[in-house]
Amino acid sequence: MRAGAGPEFCRRPRGVLRGAVLTLVFAGVLGTAAATGSLPRREQTREPAPAATGATVDRAPVDRAALARAAAEAVADGKSGKKAAEEFVSRSGDRWGAVYDKHEYAEFEQALGGAYTGVGLSARKAARDRVEISRVQGGGPAALAGLRPGDRLTAVDGRPVAGLSVSEVVSLLRGEGVSGSAVALGVERGRASWTQTLRRARLTTDPVTVRRLDDGTVLIRVAAFTKGTGERVRAAVRSAPPGAGVLLDLRGNAGGLLAEAAVAASAFLDGGLVATYDVDGEQRAVYAEGGGDTVRPLVALIDGGTMSAAELLTGALQDRGRAVTVGSRTFGKGSVQMPSALPDGSVAELTVGHYRTPAGHAVDGRGITPDLAAGDRAEERARTVLSGLGGAS
Description:
- The chain is of the alpha+beta class.
- 24% of the residues lie in helices and 27% in strands.
- It has helices at residues 31-36, 64-76, 81-92, 102-112, 141-144, 166-174, 229-239, 258-265, 309-319, 378-388, and strands at residues 8-9, 23-24, 98-100, 115-118, 121-125, 131-136, 152-156, 159-160, 182-189, 192-199, 201-204, 208-212, 218-222, 246-249, 272-279, 282-288, 298-302, 324-327, 335-341, 347-356, 372-373.
- Strands 2, 3, 15, 16, 19 and 20 form a 6-stranded antiparallel β-sheet that branches. Strands 5, 6, 7, 8, 9 and 10 form a 6-stranded antiparallel β-sheet that branches.
- Helix 7 (229-239) links the parallel strand 13 and strand 14 (246-249).
- The longest helix is centred in the first third of the chain and has 13 residues, at 64-76.
- It starts with 7 loop residues before the first strand and ends in a 5-residue tail after the last helix.
C-alpha cells in the first residue's frame, strides 16, 4: 500500500500491480519528484484541500470493468488505450485517478525506492499565482546551477507557467524523464531574471535526516515514506539519548508507502491501531508493531504539504495521545487507489476507498488540524512545547 511521498515524486501514489497492492495517492508528491518534475503528472499539485470549502469527496467508485473495455476498444480501433483510459477517468470525477504508461509507472516504482529522474527541486504555488521553488536537493542539477528556495519559475522550455497548476508545471519539468535531457527554466530572484538550462539526472533521495539541536532535542525530518524509511525512524529513536525529546518534522512530506508510515508509528507506539480503510466497502485496518518508545516526549510538525501516509502517521500519533501536533492543517489526501493493468500495458489507478484515523476521523478532503496552530515560527513553537513536556536535556 502506498500513501504519498516526497520531492520529485509527484502527487499520486500508485499501487503495485503484483498482488494488487493498494495505494494511497501522494498528493504533493513525492515532494522531490513532484518538485523536479519526474513522476506522474498529477501527483504534484498542492491545490487547496476540499476541506477548505467544506466539500465532500466520497463518490461512487469508477467502474473498472467499463474502463478496461473502453481502453480495449480504443486499442482494437488502432487508437491509444492510455488516452482512452485518461478520458474515462477524467469524466469519472475521480480526482485522484491516474493513468500511467509503462515508463511512467516504472519511474514511479523506482521513486518509491528513493531514486528518480529530475532536476532536484520542489515547487509550490506562491502569492499572485506564481510558482516558487520550495526546496532544492543538494548535489542535484538545480543546486549545482545555484537555484535556491524562494526563486520564482516563470517559464519551462519557453512556456509561461503563470496560470498553470503545479501539476502542469511538474509535467513540463519532467518531460519524458530521460536522464541527460535538457530543460530551460525562466527564473526570477528579486529584480533579476534569467534563463537557466539544466540537464535532468538520475537522483537519489535521503528521506530521513537526524540532528541534535543545541537544547538536546533530537530533530527527525522525514521527507517521504520510501522503502526503508520506517526502520530508519525507529533506529533514530532508539539511538536518541535517554530523556531527549523528539521533534518529528513531517512538513512537506507528500507521503509514500503506508507500510513504512506504520513502521515509523511503531517507533512511538506499543502496537495498536494506526488507521482503518475500506476497499469497495470491505473494512480493513493497519497496526503498529509493539515495543515502541511510549514515554519519550514527542512533538510532530505538520503543514499544508503534509499528505497521505504522513497524514495517517500524524493522525495515529494525535488520536492516541502520543504526540502534540504543531503547525497548520494538513493537505487532506486520504483515499485508497488500486492499480489495474490495461490492454496496452499502461496502468490505471482508481480510487476504491478512504482512510480514517484511529478515532474514526476522515482525512480525505479534510486534512488534520494541529493541536497548536503556528505559522512561520512553527519550529520555534514546537521546541517550546517540547521543552514544556520535559523534552530538552
